[in-house]
Design goal:
alpha/beta, 6-stranded mixed sheet, 9 helices, about 40% helix, globular
Length: about 250
């Protein structure tokens, strides 16, 4: 029993046999996925593959019909509030108060989480998240998508979130901003944060992810080490696996 407990404690996220239906539609079909500290897992799949359902199960907004979803050993279905204490979620479009600066937004959102940051600490966290110092005091209404995401990551750093969920993080970013965001994600992973990205972006996952899972019809049909393939090879494998799962 001690060995099992130790093994389970190794995982920040552990999904085993998760199933979820909406009426007659099966959104997840025995999904297995695990993440250790410092890993970046890209969940790659088309619309309808089950990416959003997976994120909602982790956040405890949905409960699995079968299987288990655990965050830091906490069952997200049985104790969603407890599980969410370890999770930071950054949606495709991060909503900030446009009239507040980056520092003010960060301090406001961390106050909601029960934390009280001084201005100097807030600036340090924004810098660690990759936001340029010249933007710290600017109104967030002037921020690009990439800059808003960095404030979101700073919130995650302030909360010391063990798991960071990213929803289509590079969608709408120009190549320079996407490359910059890749650097930010890798830096967060280096600090020990486990990161799960739900994405369509075949190309950026090679720069960010330590593992890639191809999700189709609610289950992972292939898991890939992105370092073993170039962009063309990754695209070919992705298309082949989706075609094979649809057959």
């Amino acid at each position: 029993m001690a060995d099992v407990t130790t093994h389970a404690a190794d995982f920040v996220l552990e999904i085993q046999g998760a199933g979820k239906r909406f009426g007659v539609r099966r959104a997840l079909d025995g999904l297995d996925l695990s993440l250790r500290p410092g890993e970046v897992f890209a969940l790659l799949g088309p619309n309808g593959a089950g990416k959003t359902t997976t994120v909602n199960l982790i956040l405890g907004f949905l409960k699995a019909d079968a299987g288990t979803v655990r965050v830091c050993g906490i069952d997200a279905g049985a104790d969603p509030v407890g599980a969410r204490r370890h999770v930071a979620y950054i949606p495709e479009q991060v909503a900030l108060y446009p009239g507040l600066s980056g520092v003010e937004n960060l301090r406001y959102f961390t106050t909601l989480a029960g934390l009280h940051l001084g201005k100097a600490t807030a600036r340090t966290l924004l810098a660690e998240a990759g936001l340029a110092e010249t933007a710290h005091a600017r109104p967030a209404g002037s921020y690009s998508k990439g800059m808003r995401q960095k404030v979101g990551i700073a919130v995650a750093l302030a909360r010391r979130a063990r798991l960071l969920l990213l929803d289509e993080p590079t969608s709408g970013l120009d190549p320079s901003a996407a490359a910059d965001f890749s650097t930010t994600v890798r830096a967060a992973a280096t600090r020990g944060t486990a990161i799960l990205m739900a994405t369509h972006d075949l190309y950026r996952v090679r720069e960010m992810a330590s593992r890639v899972g191809v999700l189709s019809r609610g289950r992972i049909v292939e898991e890939i080490d992105p370092r073993t393939l170039d962009h063309v090879g990754l695209e070919r494998l992705y298309i082949e696996r989706l075609a094979g799962s649809a057959a």
